[in-house]
Amino acid sequence: MLISIELFVMLVLANGAPVLAARLFGRRWSAPVDGGRLWRDGQPVLGRSKTWRGIVSGALACCLFAWVTGIGVVFGLVFGLLGLAGDIISSFIKRRAGLASSARAVGLDQVPEALLPMILAWFWLGLGWFTVVVVVVLFTVSNILLSPVLYRLGIRHQPH
To answer: Could you list the residue ranges that cross the membrane (predicted)?
Structure first.
């Protein structure tokens, strides 16, 4: 049970630390991962909101949390990077579908960034598939329900 909560917290950190870093640092270190390039369809590969600052802050937050909880620094780093990779995959798919970076895509906005790191946890920590599914669903539902609240509090720029 405790490991499920710790993994859930790590998913929140991987996705929340970039938002916090953007608030703290403004435009500093905000180079986009895609370098501002366009894909064959004329749309951005990922968009301006996927930055190197976000990748570093999300991965380091997971790494630090995993170190403090004893899960392991390397696990935390890889877990965080996979969560961010899932977010990047979602952004790539949304751009190909013609959706703006702020557009809502329920499921696509949550599942890849939770599922990829949880597959790592399944193998690395020997979790059961049920635990993986529960954490992914919990993250997805909490993200959908809490994003509007964080928007109203001024933490998020979009209500989703």
So the answer is: 55-84, 130-151
Q: CA 54 to CA 48: how far, in whole Å?
A: 11
| Domain boundaries of the chain, sorted by first residue | 2-152
Nearest to 91 by CA among 141, 50, 33: 50
DSSP label at 150?
H
Q: Indicate whether this model's pTM tops 0.85.
A: yes
Distance CA 73, CA 160 (A): 31
Q: What is the C-alpha separation between 83 and 110, in angstroms, rounded? A: 10
How far apart CA 36 and CA 130 sit, in angstroms, is: 40
